[in-house]
Amino acid sequence: MDLADFNRIWSPVYGHPAWSVKKGWGSFLTLEFGQPALRIREPRLASPDASEQVRELHGRRQVTVTGSWHLWIYCCNWSIVLSGKEVAHSESPADDITFATQRLDGQKILSVVRDTTPGSWVFAFDLDGELKTWPYGDDPSDEQWLLYERDSGNVLTVRADGLISYGSASRTLEDEEWNPM
Questions:
Q1: What domain range includes position 143?
Q2: DSSP, residue by residue, the chain
Q3: Rounded distance, CA 148 to CA 64, Å?
Q4: Using one digit for the tens of pLDDT, what is the confidence trace for 92-125?
Q5: Cβ contact 118:181 at 8 Å
Q6: Is the pLDDT of residue 173 over 80?
Q7: Tens digit of each residue's pLDDT (9 = 90 or more) over 120-134
Q8: In Å, what is the CA distance from 18 to each residue of 53, 80, 109, 113, 133?
Q9: Is 0.85 surpassed by the pTM of this model?
Q10: Could you give the number of structural domains in the chain?
Q11: CA 167 from chain center: how many Å?
Q12: Under 8 Å between Cβ of 1 and 24
């Protein structure tokens, strides 16, 4: 994958406001872009050895609202900068993270570029917001962030070592191809 491929994947996302920007499990962040749609996961049977909690979760219908593009900030450090000042990072207290994500919510994404430090990225937004990511440092194969495309079913995945993968979100780990950009 080269820079032109990367830009081709991101170009339809640019100019869309981020919405439903929030902290997920641990220090994960999620951002939605584009037209909202309902995603409905029907109840299913859990394996017999699953915990009661897992069986209950699988037994429920799950309805979520997703965008045309779903950005998942995954196994990496991150910071949210507003008007040049860091307002929260991946280890900040929950209230600071909530404040920062609420300020990023509604800002239009303008660009995604590699930063000068290896494995680091800058997501720039139109109202002086920035989301910066960089590796934890433990494992170069950590997946730092993923951009899911609802219509194509593909996902763009970026690792801490700078390698990138693009293809079906349903593929197995063995089928993933990692390439430099």
A1: 3-175
A2: --HHHHHHHHTTTTTPBPEEEEE-STT-EEEEESS-EEEEE---PPPTTS-HHHHHHHTS-EEEEE-SEEEEE-SSEEEEEETTEEEEETTS-HHHHHHHHHHHTTPBEEEEEE-SSTT-EEEEETTSEEEEEE--SS-TT-EEEEEEETTT-EEEEEETTS-EEEEETT--GGG---B--
A3: 15
A4: 999 999 999 999 999 999 999 999 998 999 999 9
A5: no
A6: no
A7: 999 999 999 999 999
A8: 32, 14, 7, 17, 17
A9: yes
A10: 1
A11: 16
A12: no
Look at residue 181 and tell me if it is in a domain: no
- Bridge partners (DSSP) of residue 132 are 79, 122
Q: Is residue 126 part of a domain?
A: yes
Amino acid at 120: S
180 inside domain: no
Nearest CA among 31, 26, 4, 34 for reference residue 75? 26
Hunting for tokens 């995604």 — which residue is that?
112
Cα–Cα dist 145/168, whole Å: 16
The answer as to whether 60 is a domain residue is: yes
d(CA 160, CA 73): 12
Residue 108 phi, psi dihedral angles, 5° rounding: -80, 135
